[in-house]
Design a protein that fits this description.
By secondary structure, this protein is an alpha+beta fold. The chain has helices at residues 5-21, 27-31, 40-52, 69-79, 87-100, 107-119, 172-185, 196-205, 213-228, 249-258, 267-271, 320-337, and strands at 56-57, 66-67, 123-129, 137-142, 147-154, 158-165, 230-235, 278-280, 293-303, 306-315.
């Protein structure tokens, strides 16, 4: 059923009031709103209809109404007003980022803490490699007598390397042959493509350098695993204890136990093909413990093939407009911070290439 504009206005008012007060909303509270021109009887009828349609719930017979998961979903999708950050809020976020963000490898933990502080909710931060990790090219460079440097050239101009000892009977010519074999058989492969059968095939073609193949394969697999892994941090779970929804200690403990890296590890995959900010309301969450909880996540570009993600976990009553505005601003600011090194304001560490 298509909701009338009046029903939508009443529903939005119920959600806004419930977000602010954490108390069931009655028709009298809505009639007192300055932009609400309808009579109390009209509003009561509209609230009854919204309850019958599943957008509102009535906790007790004589109580007011609270939004259902469906009500929050409609609110997030269509009804909430844009929240404009104040100048003080933008200054606060910018100052926090500039002072506390210095290196990419520390970014995940620090961002989770900053987002939690800015939203007063448990926060998630993650960094993962965008796209499939693979090797674009292998180079074997002789490094004096008795060793050579294995160089793996990865997407986005990344380079990793390892010094490997040479067997006495392997010459520079043998290394050139092995390099050609590796580039013919092992480039552009995903991690799962490096099988025992592939190793046997490469060893048969590598001539005198065949004994080096298992070492090279091990290092390549380890590198691709590191490239494909997601680094995640969660901060501020205890902030839930200050909210009315979690006064029940057992409920609070179940939810807090579910807000950890393992339980939330699927969120980067959820964001893989998503654009902008994604809101997961109550029952839309996979984990049963989060059915009364909403998750708001957005992503940003770190550069060098890395994708960042930030989000918060909180009650379905959370202020979605304010939370999405703050997360979006964080994401935009972080994307600018981790832009390519042509930007002279960036920390020097951001432009460093990872090396073994």
């Amino acid at each position: 059923m298509e909701l009338t504009e009046r029903k939508k206005k009443v529903l939005r008012s119920v959600v806004d009031l419930y977000i602010r007060t954490a108390e069931p909303v009655g028709s009298k509270a809505i009639t007192e709103l300055p932009d609400m021109k309808y009579s109390s009887a009209t509003i009561r009828n509209e609230m009854a209809d919204l309850t019958a349609l599943g957008y509102l719930e009535q906790p007790h017979t004589s109580a007011g109404r609270i939004p259902s998961a469906a009500g929050y979903r409609l609110y997030v999708d269509e009804l909430m007003m844009d929240y404009r950050l104040s100048i003080d809020e933008t200054k606060s976020i910018n100052t926090a980022i500039e002072e506390k963000m210095q290196r990419v490898d520390k970014m995940v933990e620090k961002v989770a803490k900053l987002v939690s502080q800015a939203t007063n909710l448990p926060a998630i931060s993650a960094a993962s490699r965008s796209g499939d990790a693979c090797v674009k090219r292998f180079e074997l460079l002789q490094a004096g007598q008795g060793s050579f440097i294995l160089v793996l050239m990865l997407p986005n101009d990344q380079v990793v390397n390892k010094v490997i000892k040479l067997p006495l009977d392997v010459t520079e010519t043998d290394l050139k042959l092995l390099s050609a074999v590796l580039n013919a058989a092992m480039t552009e492969l995903p991690l799962e493509g490096f099988t025992a059968e592939l190793m046997d095939k490469v060893m048969r073609s590598a001539g005198a350098a065949a004994s080096l193949v298992p070492v090279i394969l091990d290092f390549t697999q380890e590198t691709l695993k590191n490239q494909a892994s997601t680094n995640m941090a969660v901060f501020g779970q205890s902030r839930l204890l200050t909210l009315p929804e979690y006064r029940d200690v057992d409920k609070a403990q179940r939810v807090m136990a579910s807000i950890d890296e393992d339980a939330l590890s699927n969120l980067p995959a959820v964001m893989q093909n998503a654009n902008g900010t994604k809101v997961i309301v109550g029952p839309e969450n996979i984990a049963d413990e989060l059915k009364d909880t909403s998750v708001v996540v957005t992503k940003f570009d770190i550069g060098d093939g890395l994708q960042g993600m930030i989000g918060v976990v909180g009650p379905t009553r959370m202020d979605y407009a304010k939370v999405t505005a703050r997360l979006s601003y964080f994401a935009e600011s972080l994307s600018k911070m981790f832009a390519k090194p042509e930007n002279p304001q960036l920390p020097e560490a951001v432009s460093e290439e990872p090396h073994e």
